[in-house]
Amino acid sequence: MLDAQSIRPDQVPNRAGVGYKAQHLDDILQNPDSIGWIEIHAENYMGDGGRPIAQLRHLRERFAVSCHGVGLSIGAEGPLDQDHLNRLKKLVDWLEPGLFSEHLAWSTHDSHFLNDLLPVPYTQATVDRVVAHINQVQDTVGQQMLLENPSTYVAFEESDRTEIAFLSEVASRSGCGLLLDVNNVFVSATNQNYSPEGYIDAFPTDLVGELHLGGHEEDADDFGATLLIDSHSRPVVDPVWALYEYTLAKAGPRPTLIEWDNDIPEWDTLATEAARADRLLSSVAARAD
Amino acid sequence: MAAQSQFAQALLDPAQPVPEGVIDPEGRPAGKRFDVYRNNVVVSLLDAMETAFPVIQKLIGAENFRNLAGLYVREHPPASPLLMFYGEDFPAFLQGFTPLSHVPYLADVARLELMRRSAYHAADTTPVAADALAQVAPDKLMDLRLTLAPSLRILTSAYPVVAIWNYNMLPDAPKPPATSQTTLITRPELDLEMQEISPDMAAFLGSLQAGNTLGEALANATTNDTAFDLTAGIVLMLQHGLIIDILS
Questions:
Q1: Closest chain A residue to B80 measured between Cα atoms?
Q2: Same structural domain for residues B193 and B79?
Q3: Which of A51, A111, A222 sits opposite B32 (nearest CB)?
Q4: Tens-digit pLDDT profile for residues A105-123
Q5: Which of A10, A123, A198, A248 could bridge to A284 as Cys pair (CB 3.0-4.6 Å)?
Q6: Where is the Putative DNA-binding domain (chain B) (predicted)?
Q7: Which residues partner with A208 through β-bridges?
């Protein structure tokens, strides 16, 4: 059905994209121009075959794709899982994603996969380990990786530098780019008591290859302080949209993902979020001209 | 190594204290903040279990399933980031769970759900042409080895597992009979197909799958008094696109 318009674009454009969910396939194929690109979670396409891979091959003929890993455990104290790296390489080889990203986090320990993005202390030892792991990933996959800033709920006593100092050193030593998740900035800034705008001001935005936007939930810690939880289960809230505009004003337009992974809505709701990001992207692009 | 070990153990065991050095921005112990990670890990794995075992969930009820899966995910966290295959130890876990020993078929139903999942994600293959076997000289036929589709799964059970699955997942499916059932799962294209087959058909297909010749498979499927119907076996394989290569 898409064969006539098979264009197989490689480069992810400075437009809004969405995290691809199978229940939206028909809507996406019927309204392909409502989004500029799609993002997939790499691990969902690491089976040997079947419907998920067939759908993705089909979509790839029409859309540029960003490949977002959630299972590499870049921040782990132990070595990376070579089998998993090989699976990632196999996927990247046929998918030819325009962007490829992973998280500053760990999820695997003693061969147990804990299925969450767990935090790391910001120390020299962690920088060295993360740089070594990213070098290994980029050498294996043969493509630059974007490293995503995390949503964090705790801090570590041993941390001796800011998240931005940490990310900047990792990027400059490994040659990786950065994925700036604006909702994560808002969540972490609230949880860790710093200014989200100050974070954006200090962030090396010239290294940013992609932006993320998503929804979060609100809770409270033991002392009644607001604790935001990165849930990807709701619309993007207005303060995060404002922070996104603030980011675009500094960084210029960048491919922007609407992340919605839990309580997934009807397509129209997601498309409305994407359209809002697209409007902001085109207005900042117009100002730059 | 110690820090992440301690962190990982505390995630899966709510009785353990928050790991040392994990604090809030004021330097106080992290408490509820650490519990966010605990909750994320367990809830996301429970969700993965619900996706994997919808029939078990129906059979024992949503709340019981959530409680039981809660025990399982702490004892058997995933060994791989490919959550589409998570739960491989669940059948054995169910079998060993004595409070549910009055529902003895649960473990086999869980095996069936796992098999469907792995068949769904198996490699795509193209069957040989329907007349490929007809091209073989009759005296060579019994020496052939056939490569069968990697999505093929067979489950032999003392319980009516296909009927139980159908009754819980399909509208208007009849009540399961009190009988044993052998299940064949195939995936000719992208959709799974499931049907009951006879034990001798299962022996025949299993023997071919293990790399034996047609002649050996025929012998393995033939019980003392009944010769296996080879034609029926070949027809079934061709109907479901199971033969993907013929090795002489």
A1: A113
A2: no
A3: A222
A4: 999 998 899 999 999 999 9
A5: A248
A6: 3-94
A7: A178
